[in-house]
Amino acid sequence: MFVCAVPIGNLxxxxxxxxxxxxxxxxxxxxxxxxTGRLLELxxxxxxPRLLAHHDHNERASAAGVVALLLEGRDVALVSDxxxxxxxxxxxxxxQAAHDAGVTVAVVAGPSAVAAAVSVAGVxxxxxxxxxxxxxxxxxxxxxxxxxxxDVLVAFESPRRLAATLAAxxxxxxxxxxxxxxxxxxxxxxxxxxxxxxxxxxxxGEVRGEVVLVxxxxxxxxxxxxxxxxxxVADLVExxxxxxxxxxxxxxxxxxxxxxxxxxxxxxxxxxV
Length: 273
Known about the structure:
Methyltransferase, Cobalt-precorrin-4 Transmethylase, Domain 2, 3 domains, alpha/beta, 5-stranded mixed beta sheet, globular, Cobalt-precorrin-4 Transmethylase, domain 1
């Protein structure tokens, strides 16, 4: 089975490998057969393989049917309407079912709105936290924003809720830098970076298209390292936790920089040798 990333807007992002695979498989599991059918036309894929509806409302039942085809020796590609399957799109159930059945799962890598947004935002940080679509309720939204205050946070957002989300960010973390990525790779692509209150002015009024938000990581409050923090890291490492994970856990609970704590932990280990 092939997990295939398709363009998120610009057809030129379709790789030669994607075109070849879509033309060679026996069937394509897709969110919307009309959308995928149109994509095959634009990519001039011929002969056109069988299209199987695989979406949020039938994912589990559809996965069983697709796996049955795979076990018969058929080649199947999994696609979403745009971007990479299983990233806030249907696909996880099918991929897991294929693995459980002992089917080889290969990836045809390509466009991803998440990776595109992170790269164009130019944020600094140790990785990022992708949370899919932001919650609709104000309380849940605030919880996500505050819980990931010290992470680079990446999320999808409805254009209709963009104004409310920017207002929530401004209310909770007015100094946190935000990048709004709208219609990435498309004709009206727009990337705006600034504080939430500044972006609220930019996006005042009706907003259309796909929106990805990237929130910078806020600096963690500097707390002087003490022997207790270093000792806790040493205890976790001795218990089998990786040093990097141990320092992150201790820093999250006691405050301070995980990097500084990691270096102090290494220094303490060297002194004990």
